[in-house]
Amino acid sequence: MTELPDEAGFRREMARVDDDLATARRLIAAFVAENRDAINGILGEVHRSGRGSKVLMAAVIQAADLGRMLMGDDFGAWIDQAAMMQMDIAEQDWREIENDD
Predict the structure, then answer these.
(1) What span, in angstroms and rounded, lies between the C-alpha atoms of 39 and 97?
(2) Measuring CA to CA, how many Å separate 32 from each of 6, 26, 46, 61, 93?
(3) Are 51 and 16 in contact (CB under 8 A)?
(4) Predicted local distance difference test score (pLDDT) of residue 1
(5) What is the domain range of residue 56?
(6) Which residue in 61, 59, 41, 60 sits closest to 49, CA to CA?
(7) Which residues of the chain have pLDDT under 70?
(8) What is residue 93's three-state secondary structure?
(9) CA-to-CA distance for 86 and 93, rounded, in angstroms?
(10) Tally of domains within the chain
(11) Cα(17)–Cα(11) distance, rounded to whole angstroms?
């Protein structure tokens, strides 16, 4: 069984989660604004923090929440189908690259 952290440790981790969500939202906002300098700056912050996977997960949460808000229960099926189609496209791209070599 996993032990829960003490209250101070829990509060620190929750503050990190809040930071990660804020960073993900800042990155999304910079992308929407097409602000490449801000995007590069935020990506640099993420890299230096060592919390890239946490920020990525926070961005996923944001995307999933928005998808559910806009599409309701249909979002899960839509994103799954879109991911499969994108994987097929990527596979074809790699085949073409390999054939060019």
Answers:
(1) 29
(2) 39, 10, 18, 17, 27
(3) yes
(4) 67
(5) 7-72
(6) 41
(7) 1
(8) helix
(9) 10
(10) 1
(11) 10
Q: Is 50 left (phi over 0), alpha (psi -120 to 50) or beta?
A: left
Instruction: Please indicate, yes or no, if residue 54 is contained in any of the structural domains.
Output: yes
What is the spatial distance between Cα 55 and Cα 43, in angstroms, rounded to a whole number?
10
Residue 49 located in a structural domain: yes
pTM: 0.75
- DSSP symbols for 3-38: PPPPHHHHHHHHHHHHHHHHHHHHHHHHHHTT-HHH
- CB within 8 A of 75, min separation 6: which ones? 64, 67, 68
